Amino acid sequence: MSLTAPQKKDADSETLALRRRKVRQIPNTVTRAIGQQLRTFREQRGMTQLELAMSAEVERTRISKLELGLVNPSALTLATICHVLGITLADLFAEIRLSHPPTTEGGSLRRANQAVLDKKPVSKRAS
To answer: Which of 9, 22, 69, 113 is within CB 3.0–4.6 Å of 31 for a Cys-Cys bond?
Structure first.
């Protein structure tokens, strides 16, 4: 006797699968800018991707994907890589003048399960 329900393929599951694919908009301007900065600092230090990866204890392919803007790295991963490069997070982001607007202001979804407001919140500033 099976204790799990059979997996049914219906329009809802297909829509969800398409939505997940559609959400991944990487590389984007932000991930590319971070990657370019990482590559610049790595090359200034005369390090190969493999040397950086081994010192930062990440996979070499991860360094490549970071530099190409193909992944959205965690702050901890960036902090570790910055440590190995002898820079701070502030140094890494110093030249990056970008931001990403929320969906209510025209920004794209960042992940499939992202909470999205139906309408823009009302500002409560005093006049």
So the answer is: 69
Task: Give the integer Cα–Cα distance in Å for 125 and 109.
Answer: 27
pLDDT band at 24 (very low <50, low <70, confident <90, very high): low
Per-residue pLDDT reduced to its tens digit, 34-58: 999 999 999 999 999 999 999 999 9
Torsion of CA 107, 62, 49, 59, to 10 degrees: 160
Q: How far apart are the first and last CA of the chain?
A: 67
Output phi, psi for 95, to 5 deg.
Answer: -90, -5
